[in-house]
């Protein structure tokens, strides 16, 4: 037993051969499952009676309504569902449109294509963006010591395939978020534009503005704000300003159905709020627990971003805090956890890996594969626990880095 804990502490059990082997094994398994699932589907409908790409059907239906000159019906749940039934059949489940009008700038062009082609373009393009950003993060490691092994690890990350199976936008979110963090030091305006482009995920904007302000990144904050305003203006001109009023009205229904009633299943949600609700607590108690955790991670992240610790540590901390601060995080959203893993790996190669960090990174990598099933069977929110542990370890590294900087260079200016 002592030997096992020693290997977990050092992380030497996770060899390059094992990382490559585990990743390729999962990749092969996922490809076979997807291929088999499509092979037994009936046209656009899978064997469970759902559209192939499930949630993407909502994007496509919304875009088709816009192309028909009916953008106002996007937030009319009955009209939107009727369009899904028209495309996929009367028995199709209802996948609601819950995004701000900004996301119609993506959904509408996709609806110009046949459904399968649109789904393929969406999946391939966002997957390529995700891989290019992860590669850009890891290729910055001095000496390129990680080599090409990053590719199967990034591609085989289980959250990627949860996202692909749902046809969701987690890969796009990871690509934009990661690109914004990479651009931040040298190109703050570009970074702000990329952060602003994430406005279709407003629940992920609870931490980044505070961190950026704490770091004095005013140009990035201003650029992000201008980008959001510009996107709102563009959508108002194209689709009509009333669409924003319709979206605002729909948020109450979204909050009640998705968060408070857990219509998608609390086992799929990866937040403190969802865990507390899954354990039987009331809505106010769950909100209170989520609020306490959100406030804590915002404060800790702001503290780190005000310090002079490793920029990669700051980036990893911000990504994880973004997940922890929101009550509405689904398992496919855990794709952005790949960014935190990549930044943490880069920080580890730069300053050495602390005890248990390598094993924790492996746990964070595999957790999305098991989180939904374990939560559904045992009420243990494995995904949330992995994210919380990851945040604690990265925050510890930030604290140690700051302490070392003070000892080694007491006159260093705080960032």
TrEMBL record:
Membrane topology of this protein:
Multi-pass membrane protein
Compartments, as annotated in UniProt: Cell membrane
Q: Which domain of life is it from?
A: Bacteria
Lineage here is:
Bacteria, Pseudomonadati, Pseudomonadota, Alphaproteobacteria, Hyphomicrobiales
Q: Which Pfam families match?
A: GT87
A GO molecular-function descriptor: hexosyltransferase activity
Q: Which family does it belong to?
A: Belongs to the glycosyltransferase 87 family.
Chain ranges passing through the membrane: 21-40, 102-133, 145-164, 176-200, 221-247, 285-305, 317-345, 365-394
The molecule here is called: DUF2029 domain-containing protein
Q: Does the keyword Membrane apply?
A: yes
- GO CC annotations? plasma membrane
Keyword field contains Acyltransferase:
no
Q: What keywords tag this UniProt record?
A: Cell membrane, Membrane, Transferase, Transmembrane, Transmembrane helix
